[in-house]
Specification:
The protein is an alpha+beta fold. The chain has helices spanning 2-13, 28-43, 45-57, 71-83, 100-111, 163-172; strands at 89-90, 96-97, 117-118, 122-125, 131-134, 138-140, 145-147.
Length: 173
């Protein structure tokens, strides 16, 4: 394709095309992209808002399942990442969270000024009067609402051992 384009340009203009000086520089493409983004942020308010949302909510991408050769490889990756420690991922709100998905949620809530508390202990009274103390992922004090984020696939499965049962027990609470 490049040879075809080069040939057409050379035939029409009578000389080979001259590429921009940044093309052959290792950091050249990145600098051009940065300049395009900077220009758009300064001139297009909608782009500036969308760019900000992208950087805040999706600051670090997780490796998609499609990249792995087998489902077992993906499950092993997720399991190994989970074993490396509990809450180790920072957020813009200052909370340390346990997953990139929770980081996205916290960053989105923070970006949109939604009042919340991460893993706040709440007391729940069972039908028999027994009080249990739970730590839901998110608590919204203005509406006294809790929100659990489950690592479940669309079909209800999870890459984590025994996680589906764990999620179901949390739903029952």
């Amino acid at each position: 394709f490049h040879a075809l384009g080069r040939g057409i340009i050379e035939e029409v203009e009578g000389r080979p095309p001259q590429l921009a000086n940044w093309v052959d520089h290792p950091a050249g493409e990145g600098r051009v992209i940065e300049e395009i983004i900077r220009s758009l942020v300064e001139t297009d308010p909608q782009f500036a808002r969308l760019w900000s949302d992208l950087l805040v909510v999706h600051a670090k991408a997780d490796i998609p399942v499609e990249v792995f050769d087998t489902e077992a490889d993906y499950r092993r990756y997720v399991s190994n990442r989970l074993k490396k420690g509990g809450a180790t991922i920072g957020s813009l709100a200052g909370d340390i969270v346990k997953s990139l998905q929770e980081q996205k949620i916290v960053n989105w809530l923070w970006l949109h000024s939604v009042e919340f508390e991460y893993e706040r202990q709440i007391a729940v009274e069972d039908d028999d009067g027994t009080v249990r103390h739970l730590h839901p992922d998110f608590y919204y004090p203005l509406t006294d609402t809790v929100h659990e984020h489950f690592a479940l696939n669309a079909d209800g499965t999870s890459p984590f051992a025994d996680y589906v049962q764990h999620a179901e027990s949390k739903r029952q609470a």
